[in-house]
Each structure stands twice: as structure tokens, then as C-alpha cells.
Design brief:
Elements (H helix, E strand, L loop, with lengths): L1 E5 L2 H18 L4 E4 L6 H14 L7 E4 L1 E3 L10 H8 L11 E2 L8 H14 L5 E4 L21 E4 L2 H7 L12 E4 L2 H5 L3 E6 L5 H9 L17 E6 H4 L3 H7 L3
Parallel strand pairs: 1-10, 2-3, 2-6, 3-5, 6-9, 9-10
Antiparallel strand pairs: 4-8, 7-8
Bound molecules: 2-amino-2-deoxy-6-O-phosphono-alpha-D-glucopyranose.
2-amino-2-deoxy-6-O-phosphono-alpha-D-glucopyranose binds next to α5.
Length: about 250
């Protein structure tokens, strides 16, 4: 696991976009696994800038998003489909048919989930997976639980996640209680993983991911077993870890 600590959110975005753009340049028809949330916004801003100013070409790229709320239409402002259009997909030259997000309005959740896994597998798996991390150590919407779940599946969101994500909705009651999330298999099978985290609210989760036991109660801890993972954090997200002590003690 490689850990890169930078000054602030903007620098996290620049570093993550640098790694993603390198993948696109090396493999123009790559499959990218993408994340939502506040953290990746600076990454997407930087990728859009690279598209506009440096000609970064998305025309052969395919994207697969990690998750979607159940019950929200793709044009609902809080849906992850809407978020992705708003922050990246409508702003670069990616083909609509190459972008994939689980359908939150499906009437057949099981079928939608297995079809999503099959689509990723049929395309040869993900070349790079971008991840954020929840305060409780979740990745995608793989919430803390008794076991790691391999497949794309329906999940009941934890109270902590509902509370954390309520900032995007008018009130906590409006936050959907369930979601579809890709499982640990497509994430762990990705050729490369880039995990980004910013702010002190993520420090405990980052610490548990880096140093904790590998347990399903901290889903991100499984990432310790991935051979090609880069964790990009700002100082606040690393606060309190022994890595931060050794990095910053000389200043
Ligand atoms: C959400 C998403 C995750 C995201 C996490 C952190 O619930 N499902 O993919 O990584 O929460 O979000 P944020 O970056 O807004 O803190």
C-alpha cells in the first residue's frame, strides 16, 4: 500500500486525477470504477480541466459507478447518476453508452445486481477503481457487517451513513434507507485502486484501514490485501496515525 499525503483537498484531487489520466493515456479504452461523494469532486474538476486544456481523451473510456440509492430516478438531484453527469460525465467526451451506474429504480434488484457484475466481468474487469471512504470505514456502500460481500448487492444503510449523507438532502428523513452497491470482488479485482480521503472526520476510518485488523466491521481494511493500491490523503485525514507522526515530526 502506497500512502501519499498532500496539503489539502485540491492537492488530493490533482494527485488522484494524475493517476487516473495516466491510466487513460496508457490504455485509452480502460474501464474506470468511479465513486461519488464530496471527496472526488476535486478529482473530477481536475479531470475536466485536463480534458479541456490538455486534450485528455475519454472517447474510448468506460465507467462503472460503485453504487446508487434505491428509489431515486437518474434525474433526481441527489441520485448518483445525476451527480456523475453534473461533475464529470456531461463535461467530457465520454460516450453515454459507455457509462454505467446501478439502476436505483429497478423492480428486480437481484437481476440488476447480477447483470451489473456480469457486465464488469464481460468487459474484462476494472483497470482502476477510485474510492472514497465513509466515516465508518465503508467503501462504495459496503457497510460494516459480519462478512465481506463479494457480489453487487442491496444494502441497508447504517444510521451513521444516513446521518452523514443527510447533508445532501433537505432532511434526514429524505435519505433513502437502501442502496445498490458493487461488492468487494469487483473492487479487489481492479488492476489498481486509488483511495482518497480528506478531513479529520475520516481520520479514524483511515487509521483503521491502514493499521487495523482485516475485518468486515471495517470494510476498507480488506484493501490492505490489494497489491496495487495508492491512498491519497490530506494531513487532517492522516492525523493521529503513526505515519503522520513520522511524516510531520521533522517540521
Ligand atoms: C458515500 C458513498 C461512498 C463515499 C462515501 C464518502 O456514502 N457511497 O462511495 O466514498 O460516502 O463520501 P464523502 O466523500 O462525501 O465523504
Amino acid at each position: 500500500m502506497k500512502v501519499i499525503c498532500v496539503e489539502n483537498e485540491a492537492a488530493v484531487g490533482k494527485e488522484a486525477a494524475r493517476l487516473i489520466s495516466a491510466m487513460i493515456r496508457l490504455k485509452p479504452d480502460c474501464n474506470l470504477g468511479l465513486a461519488t461523494g464530496t471527496t472526488p469532486m476535486t478529482t473530477y474538476n481536475e479531470l475536466v480541466r485536463m480534458y479541456k486544456e490538455e486534450g485528455l481523451d475519454f472517447s474510448k473510456v468506460s465507467t462503472f459507478n460503485l453504487d446508487e440509492y434505491i428509489g431515486l430516478d437518474a434525474d433526481h438531484p441527489q441520485s448518483y447518476a445525476y451527480f456523475m453527469d453534473e461533475h464529470l460525465l456531461s463535461k467530457v467526451n465520454i460516450k453515454k453508452e459507455n457509462t454505467h451506474i446501478p439502476n436505483g429504480k429497478t423492480l428486480r434488484v437481484d437481476r440488476t445486481c447480477s447483470a451489473y457484475d456480469k457486465k464488469i466481468e464481460d468487459r474484462g474487469g476494472l483497470d482502476l477503481q477510485l474510492l472514497g471512504i465513509g466515516r465508518n470505514g465503508h467503501i462504495g456502500f459496503n457497510e460494516p457487517g459480519d462478512k465481506f460481500v463479494a457480489e453487487t448487492h442491496q444494502i441497508n444503510l447504517t444510521d451513521d451513513t444516513i446521518e452523514a449523507n443527510s447533508r445532501f438532502f433537505e432532511c434526514e428523513e429524505d435519505v433513502p434507507r437502501t442502496a445498490i452497491t458493487t461488492g468487494m470482488r469487483s473492487i479487489m479485482h481492479a488492476g489498481r485502486i486509488v483511495l482518497i480521503a480528506t478531513g479529520e472526520s475520516k481520520a479514524d476510518a483511515v487509521h483503521a484501514m491502514l493499521y487495523g485488523e482485516i475485518i468486515p466491521q471495517v470494510p476498507a481494511s480488506l484493501l490492505q490485501l490489494h497489491p496495487e493500491i495508492t491512498v491519497i490523503v490530506d494531513r487532517a485525514a492522516l492525523a493521529g496515525s503513526s505515519l503522520a507522526d513520522s511524516l510531520f515530526s521533522a517540521e
